[in-house]
């Protein structure tokens, strides 16, 4: 990467760029707005008379913290290459990439503004009937297709080498797998939650299980993960689903992405009245059904592994993925409650007592998922455990 040619875009220079690239005519009048609401990057929405595009640019630091937290620009290249691969394996669920520039750390992609960020929609009471079906297919296809089973170990290792992503993994290793379990400076929670946080910090059994899951994250290289598949990374409508923002992509454990999706559904459920939780429970069951079915279909259709037909191997693997995912799910719930990066589903609960109760439940249910992950064998059991946590 040539740092000397990097400059951060403005609404004006983003317009000049898309015209220079020939995406719009020089003479066309374009509107340009910075719409990024994520933690890390600039996102410009550029609109002409008949079409529009998104220009996403990485900053040399984490936007949420500022220049005191320098962060590699390489993440834009990772995101661009991950989007292109995901577009190959799951085209229906991935935005089209029109252009990318490694030095400027930009990706120009399809404008998905006709859809809504699923987290926002869920908070506003939307249910998105197809989101679990689509997300389950996306996860199964992108993971299976980049695994040893589909690619063979040689080709897979070559691809794996190009998705090392140490700095973004370091963020996850710190913010998800470490800091929430200690009295760390990055943690962020209201004083009312302190006794619950301290209880977690003193729970050596929880720490042991977290250490085991962290090791899995550090050492497993099953497949190319999205790496940050929460409901804020999903655009949705009644009929469409698109997964954005794979800058945390790297080779990691099979269970990670599905765990983050389901954890974020559970956290939205915590913010809803009981009578409105059912569609989210159904999504959790569906995403697992679809993932298992699609993974199995791909396994049978294309498998380079000599043991592929060995009785019990696929069933053992799916059970193992489920068990690890139950643990990762619990960790995501805990970190989104007391760690640095929260979710609007919980933070946005206006009534203080209700907000505190929802967060206490998130911590307790999350801790149970982590510690008892070996005991869960189906999504229905996860939903039942969640419901017990509401009593
Ligand atoms: N392809 C797109 N089409 C329309 N809006 C987008 C697109 N990509 C991102 N956005 C908007 O920008 C916001 C931040 O994008 P995201 O990729 O999540 O950034 P970050 O990496 O900073 O989290 C999204 O929540 C969405 O509102
Ligand atoms: C300092 S990055 C914190 C947090 O932000 C990322 O999420 P987002 O998609 O909202 O940018 C990721 O989950 C990181 O853990």
UniProtKB/TrEMBL annotation:
Substrate binds at residues 228, 335. Its EC number is 2.7.1.100. It is an enzyme of class 2 (transferase). The keyword Transferase applies. GO terms for biological process: L-methionine salvage from methylthioadenosine. The keyword Transmembrane does not apply. ATP binds at residues 41, 56, 110-112, 245-247. It catalyses: 5-(methylsulfanyl)-D-ribose + ATP = 5-(methylsulfanyl)-alpha-D-ribose 1-phosphate + ADP + H(+). Residues 33-271 form the Aminoglycoside phosphotransferase domain. Pfam families: APH. Catalyzes the phosphorylation of methylthioribose into methylthioribose-1-phosphate. Belongs to the methylthioribose kinase family. NCBIfam families: MTRK. This is Methylthioribose kinase.
């Amino acid at each position: 990467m040539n740092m000397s040619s990097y400059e951060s875009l403005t609404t004006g220079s983003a317009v000049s760029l898309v015209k220079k690239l020939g995406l719009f005519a020089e003479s066309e009048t374009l509107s340009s707005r910075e719409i990024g609401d994520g933690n890390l990057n600039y996102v410009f929405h550029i609109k002409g008379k008949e079409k529009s595009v998104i220009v996403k640019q990485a900053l040399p630091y984490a936007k949420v913290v500022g220049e005191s937290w320098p962060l590699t620009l390489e993440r834009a290249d990772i995101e661009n290459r991950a989007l292109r691969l995901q577009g190959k394996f799951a085209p229906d669920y991935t935005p089209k990439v029109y252009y990318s520039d490694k030095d400027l750390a930009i990706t120009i992609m399809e404008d998905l503004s006709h859809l809504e960020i699923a987290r926002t929609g869920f908070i506003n009471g939307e249910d998105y009937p197809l989101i679990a079906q689509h997300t389950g297919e996306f996860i199964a296809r992108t993971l299976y297709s980049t695994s040893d089973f589909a690619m063979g170990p040689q080709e897979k290792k070559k691809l794996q080498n190009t998705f090392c992503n140490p700095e973004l993994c370091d963020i996850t290793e710190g913010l998800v797998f470490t800091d929430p379990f200690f009295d760390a400076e990055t943690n962020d929670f209201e004083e009312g939650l302190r006794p619950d946080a301290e209880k977690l910090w003193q729970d050596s059994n929880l720490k042991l299980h977290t250490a085991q899951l962290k090791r899995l994250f550090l050492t497993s290289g099953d497949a190319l993960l999205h790496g940050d598949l929460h409901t804020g990374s999903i655009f949705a409508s009644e009929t469409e689903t698109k997964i954005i923002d794979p800058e945390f992509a790297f080779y990691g454990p099979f269970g990670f992405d599905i765990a983050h999706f389901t954890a974020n559904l559970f956290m939205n459920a915590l913010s809803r009245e009981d009578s409105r939780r059912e569609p989210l429970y159904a999504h959790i069951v569906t995403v697992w059904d679809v993932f298992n079915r699609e993974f199995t279909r791909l396994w049978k259709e294309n498998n380079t592994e000599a043991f592929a037909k060995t009785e019990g191997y696929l069933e053992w693997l799916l059970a193992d993925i489920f068990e690890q995912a139950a643990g990762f799910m619990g960790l995501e719930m805990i970190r989104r409650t007391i760690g640095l990066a929260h979710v609007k589903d919980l933070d946005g609960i206006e009534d203080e007592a209700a907000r505190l109760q929802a967060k206490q439940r998130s911590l307790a249910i999350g801790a149970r998922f982590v510690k008892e992950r070996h005991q869960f064998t189906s999504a229905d059991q996860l939903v039942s455990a969640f419901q017990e946590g509401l009593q």
